[in-house]
Specification:
Number of helices: 16
Radius of gyration: 25 Å
Mean pLDDT: 84
CATH architecture of the largest domain: 3-Layer(aba) Sandwich
Low-confidence stretches: 285-307, 328-338
Strand content: 5-15%
Number of strands: 10
Distance between the termini: 50 Å
Structural class: alpha+beta
Length: about 400
Amino acid sequence: MDNIRSSVDDFLVKLHNISSDLEEDEERLMIFLCKDHITNASSIKDSSDLFIKLQECCLLTKQDTFILQELLYYTGRFDLLKKYLEVGESQVKKQITDARWTKISPFRCLLLDLSQNVVKEELDKIKKLLKNDIAVSKMEKITCLPDIFIELEKAAVIGEDKLDKLKEIFTEINQNLLDKITQYEKNKKEESLRRVFSKLDFIVISHKDLTGGGILQTIQDYSEQTHENSDCFICVILSHGNRGVIYGTDGESVAILKLTSGFKKSKCPSLAGKPKVFFIQACQGGAFQKSVQVEADASNACLNCEVSEADLIPNEPDFLLGMATTQDHVSFRHREVGSWYIQALCNQLERSFNRGEDIQLILTRVNNEVSQNQRPQMPEPCTTLHKQLCFSMKSLSI
């Protein structure tokens, strides 16, 4: 018992020493980063109060100090990481990319990143831009950007899925910081897909910012792999596009048929007789479907290319292609929740877990969910599946 008490006492002493070594502005940032985990954050005056709260929530224990490691990492106190927790900067940096470990939300990290890259002149401009959103009495007391974010969150002006006001601000203030918000949105879509397919026991591998040639090479690499131990192959593509094609980051077009054909029986025999599913979020032309301002995924919309639906997937069994919109119509991306199609796809796949529902029924519900938005784009599935395809938590694939 004495050893246990001594161990706990040592841990509390360590927390006290860390708190004593922190600067006041670092403590404020830590409290801000933990806002998602603690109630009545305004009652927390310093890091000592914060550490007590985190212990009460079982987020910080002698056995699990990772949230403290994150806080020290994000506030740049790598010296305290090493001195008191005996871990290095690189070790924490690696772990925070794994959702199983991290406790600080990506949204909170985005706000911190924005805060740390705004100079005083820009902060003054932001305060002027928000004169109608935050009361003058409160604005006069604000000395840092995190305090502004806290007030905007209280007023439900910004949130994890509510980024319009942030974009509006940084469009005026700093294009580089606006790019960080855009990247956060992209990562959020990817994380939604990763979460859903990981729950279905798929091995999820992502490839970012590929050129046209890079897309083709990646498809070829997968088609040449052996898939004998897999039940299904799914490829999700988020890009810009046109009728029958998608674009790489270099603007090079890649025919959708060329992608899907890489998995024909003759080219990928280990997937013969197994479902090969493609979900594509990209514009398929330039015409708007009838019906708030939203952002289109198209960059250059040309309607001169003639591609029939039959030319999108090989003329052999076991293929399914789901696209974000009908031919010749642009696909829309909701400013708050990412692409409507990807959001609806993730929602409906999660709803279908262990229900034994066929993929075409799921895609019908995706269609209905997307159609309820202000731009009723109609996702079009093309399929040569000759059996029902049902996902469960026990499926295994690549």
